Amino acid sequence: MNSLVRSARIAAVLLILAAIIGDVSPSIQDGTFRFYNFFGYFTIQSNLIAVVALAIASFYTGRERPQWVEYLRACATVYLIIVTTVYWTLLAPTSDPDVVWANYIVHLTSGIILLVDWLIEGPRHTLPASRFWVVLIFPGVWLCVVLVRGATDGWVPYPFLEPDSGYASIAVVVAGIAVAGTVLAIAVFKATRWRRVTP
What we know:
By secondary structure, this protein is mainly α. The chain has helices at residues 2-29, 35-38, 42-59, 67-91, 100-120, 133-152, 167-190.
């Protein structure tokens, strides 16, 4: 079972990386690629975090993992669930992806993979719900950077963060996502009791 889980994690890492490469390829080919814009998307950053989390978890498969690894895995899981939810509820209706298969992987498949991986081999001990704030650190920093860019060079990754919509509107959307992230973080932390693989 452990070898199967390890192989699945490595395969997931390669799949997500292939999707990111596939997603960026058209802009590189037509000369429109901008490093800080492409990698400024929360979707791309979350998928890269997932790649790191899965790669490290594959190394520890069947063994007790350091606590920081479990928090990293929990963060990646929560981020990709949010990415999937926000994309398919707010962005998909007006989205026209260049590479459809890659779009499905970074906005859906990767989230499913991380959630299933967490439920199959969660931490030996449930993460304390009082530390849900750990999950919110990275999105908070990302949001600050995006808002500064939006107010200076005018670039924002998603329409609901557009300064022209008004910061009150942005605050409402962000607050809603933050609440959802908090609830998801606590749920993911508690879900470790469903562990299915034991070292």
